Amino acid sequence: MTDLLRFDFCDIHIYEDYMIVIINEGLTVLPKHNNLLKEVVEVFFYKKDFVYITHRINSYAVDPTTYIETSKIKNLKGFAVVSKDFKAKSNAEIEKLFLHNKPFEIFHDLQDAVSWTRSILDH
């Protein structure tokens, strides 16, 4: 069972112990977007560990300082980027440097990211 949350800048698919986020085309993700993320986490993952998966099917930018606030979410146990696009994967390698003390992996396939989620949460 999943929930789908639609916002003006993204769609968030909520699963039992992870979320899949699809950001809209052309957007720049900024630290202010973490306020929404924190609210979603409080509602759906209150005192429960989870993994954030961003499925980059659209082209968009991320202000890497966004990850400084993301790093502060205590029950966030991992962060995954899924993309088939070389540029998006290259950007994610840079973004990875800004997410502190959290596993951050890049995947070509969404199912691989979900499987990784299981390995992160089972430890």
Structural class: alpha/beta
The fraction of residues assigned to DSSP E strands is 25-35%
Shape: globular
Instruction: Give start-end ranges of low-pLDDT stretches.
Output: none
What attributes characterize this protein structure?
single chain, 123 residues, alpha/beta
Describe this structure in words.
The chain is of the alpha/beta class and 123 residues long. Helices cover 32% and strands 29% of the residues. It has 4 helices and 8 strands; from the N terminus they run E-E-E-E-H-E-E-H-E-H-E-H.
Topology of helices and strands:
Layout: E1 3-6, E2 10-14, E3 18-23, E4 28-29, H1 33-44, E5 50-55, E6 61-62, H2 66-70, E7 76-82, H3 86-95, E8 104-107, H4 110-121
Parallel strand pairs: 3-5, 4-6, 5-7, 7-8
Antiparallel strand pairs: 1-2, 2-3
Concise synopsis of the structure shown:
With 123 residues, the chain is of the alpha/beta class.
